[in-house]
Amino acid sequence: MKYTRKDAKAHAFANMKGIWAAALMPFKDDLSIDEDGFRANMDHWIEDLGIDGFFIAGKQGEFFSMSVDERKRCFDLAVEAAGGRAQTIMSCSDQNMDVVIDLAKHAQASGADYIVVHAPVLHFFKQQDETLIRYYETIASAVDIGIALWSHPDSGYLMSPQLCNRLADIETVVAIKYSVEREMYKDLTRLASDRILVSTASEEEWLDNILELNWQLYLCSSPPYLIQTAADKRMRQYTDLAFAGKADEARRIRDSLDPVRHALKSTRPAEKPHSHQKYWQTLLGQTGGRVRPPCLELTEEERAATRKAFDACGLKLA
């Protein structure tokens, strides 16, 4: 690791910055991992788009369809593909604690920069906060790598800002992907931003969170490589302008992406986010590939509608 356990928070505050993307994992027609395609995507994302870090084998990456060994292979592949040019955070989320810790140990050994662990589904409703504190303390005691929390409605509940503030006291908890309403993450920023980096996945809110909440980290979803091309890096541009204090110019460029955002979102079937985004990747010249069951593929009609919107959205292709 690049830091010691006691230095995890300081290292994250100094280095965990900028635009991080949640990587889709391409699968071949036989549904095996397309390692060459993933490497090519990573090269493009780093060299052409300037993305700073990558969230690997999470929900976007279809971790739920992979074996534990495949998830570990994704970690190794991502560290190799990043090659020191970008940082990595590995999703170790699972309902089984032994699997979480096994994945966390592998991520640490692989050379990953951080791990992320989703708040688990709980099958009981008493003493939730104390259960979750014990959950994250147990994981933190097993590895030295920095941990990002992740709270999302998929768990069946949301961790409160007050609970997250308590979790921020854990020595190796360094960040949170807080998929909640803005008032909740504003509260957590006020409570805990001296100990953890607070972020959320909404690209539309990213600029305001830099300017109003002094955030340094977008953690993270797929827009960094879906709404940008080598010839059209407007998310990178408005981010850098915001960090430089040029708010008006940053807002102008951010707002100019509205047609691209609309095209992407308006054509995405609610039950098919992975296949839709992978098809959009294909339109961009990236490796999209198949989705694994139980994810659903797009119909020909859905592909045609997506292609029509893509062609009209104003995104400049290389």
Features:
single chain, 8 strands, 12% strand, 48% helix, 318 residues, 14 helices, alpha/beta, eight-stranded parallel sheet
Instruction: List unreliable stretches of 5+ residues.
Output: none
Taken from the alpha-carbon principal axes, the silhouette is globular
Distance between the termini: 37 Å
Order of helices and strands: HEHEHEHEHEHEHEHEHHHHHH
Q: Based on helices, strands and strand pairing, what is the structural class?
A: alpha/beta
| DSSP E strands, number | 8
How many alpha or pi helices?
14
Q: How do the strands of the widest beta sheet line up side by side?
A: 7-6-5-4-3-2-1-8
- Rg (CA only): 19 Å
In short:
The chain is 48% helix and 12% strand. The protein has helices spanning 8-15, 35-48, 68-82, 97-110, 128-142, 161-167, 182-192, 203-213, 223-226, 234-243, 247-256, 258-266, 273-284, 300-312; strands at 18-22, 53-56, 87-91, 114-118, 146-151, 173-178, 197-199, 217-221.
